[in-house]
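=== RUN LOG ===
request id: a7f3
mode: sequence -> structure
chains: 1
length: 191
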Amino acid sequence: MTKNMNQDKAVLEWLESKSKGSEYQYKNRFEIWLEYCKAKGLLLSGSEQLEDIKKKRLSSDNTEKYFYNNEIPKLFKWLRTEFKGKTTNQPLSEVSSLAVCTAIRSFFAYHRYTLEIQKDALPSSEKVEGTYQDHAFDIYQLRSMFQCGDLRERTVLSCAKDLWLRVGDFMILNRDLIELAIKREKERNFF
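=== RESULT ===
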């Protein structure tokens, strides 16, 4: 989290309202928003933006009144064309760009400033096709990872490889629930 975000009360309150699993993603998406704001000369803190939207909503000029509403489609376009991702150094996919826009809308909605976006300004989440890139590990990569890990890490690696589980899916599994499922399956097969 950037230094500015660590001291931003509005952003911290919003992030605390998110589940622990998604808080990290929302934080990253808000950092991207702040990067956009810096590039476009907008205010650089959530608290300042909330004060600004409060003033702008009182304006009789619709361009001024709905400034942030109109900024979200511009953010989407910027993410698809100009933004360079940290790991890929490429613009974001349509799905990822939409997720960033949704997070920013969530921030404003949390603080009771719902952003109404024109229907055709952003793609609908139902119409956006996800692009998934799976990496098929070769045997040498798996062996080197397996040699580096402790027992827990080796178990996660083996389960992920054999059961096609994502690490997050595997980590939320509860041993008691698994044992209960095995017991029920044995009882079902017994009758």
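=== NOTES ===
The chain has a mean pLDDT of 85.
Residues 3-110 form one domain.
=== END ===
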